[in-house]
Write a structure and sequence with these properties.
It is a single chain. The chain is an alpha/beta fold. The chain has 10 helices and 20 strands. It has helices at 18-34, 48-51, 57-60, 68-75, 138-147, 160-168, 181-186, 220-226, 232-248, 403-434, and strands spanning 9-14, 39-44, 81-85, 98-103, 111-115, 132-134, 152-154, 176-180, 195-197, 211-216, 256-263, 266-274, 281-288, 298-301, 309-310, 339-340, 356-357, 365-368, 380-382, 388-390. The strands form 6 sheets. Strands 2-1-3-10-4 form a 5-stranded mixed sheet, sandwiched between helices. α9 packs parallel to α10. The radius of gyration is 22 Å and the shape is globular. Residues 354-365, 373-382 have a biased composition (Low complexity). Residues 341-353 have a biased composition (Pro residues). Pathway: Porphyrin-containing compound metabolism; protoporphyrin-IX biosynthesis; coproporphyrinogen-III from 5-aminolevulinate: step 2/4. It comes from Adineta steineri.
């Protein structure tokens, strides 16, 4: 039976750009199919990422550039939920009491090349050496430098309309720009796409192409109302991707990227972490052929994952065995979730060389997990005030999706991150953190 919302009107927060408004209106249109008698009021809010259009994103900061101001209004109860491009929502941390209440069906997650109109060219390979490619993404720059070292990469900030205007201004010197296919499609600008870059050359950003709806974790009515929009394959892929990024600890300044494929029951995931110029990288993949199978088998954990591996004191019975039904996902001060597993015995594996794609699984610490019950995600915890909170996975509430499947998807992302850490990702991250991240501006 479909959920009946408790309110007749909800306030929807959004950024002010044309693309953000198009995305928000598309969500409202879909909600009206389920709730035709409910009103949705759109509240436009400008974020720091919208206000500062000169500095590269990596130079401004990592967290919440396009979400913070929206979340402030959400926390103040001035709005009820926010429509985001999911790639803009941090995976490592969300503010207290914030959650992703729904994820809609994903559009094309790939990147596109948009070549300046005066060039009669159809692809990057057609452009002459020394051409200037506009992008403010460290992820794109690092991978493009790896595959197209002959070009110059320059920051190009602003919403899609602003970037298109900059590309058309010959005095600024851009020969092409890189943008998400999904954004161009939503603006009905597909005719401006010169080339789509396949993931074999450039993996895409975490959550790219998907719309995520953020709301208050204690607002169960809104979460239930939004849950009709959940697209299960997209939810599972994005949970895996967000779990990967959360474990790696990446943000705008860290070039990391993924590709996920979900086919009925199985999930395949590729991931990469690069330094800023693409000269060093670690890349690998994980696969779970059946997410519906409870995790009674082995899985990968790292000796350095102690902060991610813990048990609720109440999950141990008197004889020390696991009581799976009592496992709870907690929100801590640092918003780092506990992986619901017993702590493994630490083993230090050797680190393979950098700048290589692993063809075999490296030596890994092994742990086990008891079988979760096969049920929809209705497990709850409570706040100090006694408000029931729905369980979440990488800050995503997958209401009406089997908990076993959600947990296995999250575990895929964590395992892939651990594999990259064991291949030497820590060294690359240290190099990036010690670097002065300055992307040239026009």
């Amino acid at each position: 039976m479909q959920y009946v919302p408790l309110r007749t009107k909800y306030k929807v927060g959004t950024r002010q750009s044309e693309l953000a408004l198009v995305q928000t209106e598309s969500v409202i249109e879909q909600l009206h199919k389920f709730y035709p008698h409910i009103d949705y009021e759109v509240i436009k809010i400008k974020t720091i990422g919208d206000k500062n259009l000169l500095d590269p994103l990596a130079n401004i900061g990592d967290k919440g550039l396009f979400t913070k101001e929206l979340e402030v209004e959400l926390d103040r109860n001035n709005i009820d939920f926010v429509v985001h491009s999911l790639k803009d929502v941090p995976s490592t941390v969300l503010p207290p009491n914030m959650i992703i209440g729904a994820i809609l069906e994903r559009a094309d997650p790939r990147d596109a090349v948009v070549i300046a109109p005066w060039h009669k060219k159809n692809s990057l390979n057609d452009l002459p050496h020394g051409s200037v490619i506009g992008t403010s993404s460290t992820r794109r720059i690092a991978q493009l430098k790896l595959n197209y070292p002959q070009f110059i990469y320059k920051n190009i900030r602003g919403n899609m309309n602003t970037r298109w205007e900059k590309l058309n201004n010959r005095e600024l010197g851009y020969d092409a720009m890189i943008a998400a296919v999904a954004g161009l499609q939503r603006l009905k600008w597909t005719e401006r796409i010169s080339e789509i870059i396949e993931p074999e050359r450039v993996l895409y950003a975490i959550g790219q192409g998907a719309l995520g709806i953020e709301c208050r974790h204690n607002d169960i009515d809104t979460i239930r109302m939004l849950s009709v929009l959940n697209h299960e394959p997209t939810v599972l892929r994005c949970i895996a991707e967000r779990a990967f990024l959360r474990r790696i600890g990446g943000g705008c300044s860290i070039p990391n990227a993924v590709r996920t494929v979900y086919n009925d029951k199985g999930l395949i995931m590729d991931g990469i972490l690069l330094n800023l110029d693409g000269s060093r990288f670690v890349k690998d993949h994980v696969e779970n052929s059946d997410l519906t199978v409870p995790m009674t088998t082995t899985f990968l954990v790292s000796h350095s994952d102690d902060e991610l591996l813990s048990l609720d004191d109440e999950t141990q019975s008197t004889n020390g065995s696991l009581n799976r039904s009592n496992l709870k996902r907690k929100r801590t001060e640092s918003d780092i979730d506990s992986v619901l597993t017993p702590p493994p015995a630490p083993i230090q594996p050797p680190s393979p060389p950098l700048s290589a794609t692993s063809s075999t699984t490296p030596s890994l610490t092994i742990g086990t997990i008891a079988s979760p019950s096969s049920s929809s995600t209705t497990t709850t915890t409570t706040t100090a005030e006694g408000v029931p909170l729905l369980r979440h996975y990488a800050h995503v509430c997958g209401v009406n999706i089997d908990e076993t499947v959600l947990e296995n998807a999250e575990l895929c992302g964590t395992n892939l991150a651990v594999k990259l850490m064991q291949m030497g990702a820590d060294s690359i991250l240290e190099e990036i953190h010690q670097s002065s991240i300055i992307i040239p501006t026009p």
